[in-house]
């Protein structure tokens, strides 16, 4: 499948501003901007296995498209939501448990890059990963 493989963070676009909007403190924002995140994605039909490894933690997530699940961000923010396919794009809509506000995330593969985009309270950001 398109998303299958190992992905390593290459660069960020407006990520610190996004984290600030999410309420993440300055020290954690500085650390997260240089987290050396690696993502491994395995897709089987509508089921995904995702492993996230960074300087801070390693986390494995299993989800099925369209099925709500719980997830915690690296800073401890708890979310509930689901991923769906929209054409070639994975789109996740998650609600924060602490304030009910919505976080939208998309993943799309363009060439040898995985582009992960975020929107929270009108602030957009991207994290771009390279295969490898």
Keywords:
single chain, 132 residues, Lipocalin, 10-stranded antiparallel sheet, 2 helices, 58% strand, Lipocln_cytosolic_FA-bd_dom, Fatty_acid-bd, transport, retinal binding, vitamin a
Question: Can you put this structure into words, describing what you see?
Answer:
- Cytosolic CRABPs may regulate the access of retinoic acid to the nuclear retinoic acid receptors.
- One of its GO terms (molecular function) is retinol binding.
- The relative contact order is 0.22.
- The longest helix is centred in the first third of the chain and has 7 residues.
- This protein has one domain: Lipocalin.
- By secondary structure, it is mainly beta.
- The chain is globular, with a radius of gyration of 14 Å.
- It has a ten-stranded antiparallel beta sheet.
- It has two helices and ten strands; from the N terminus they run βααβββββββββ.
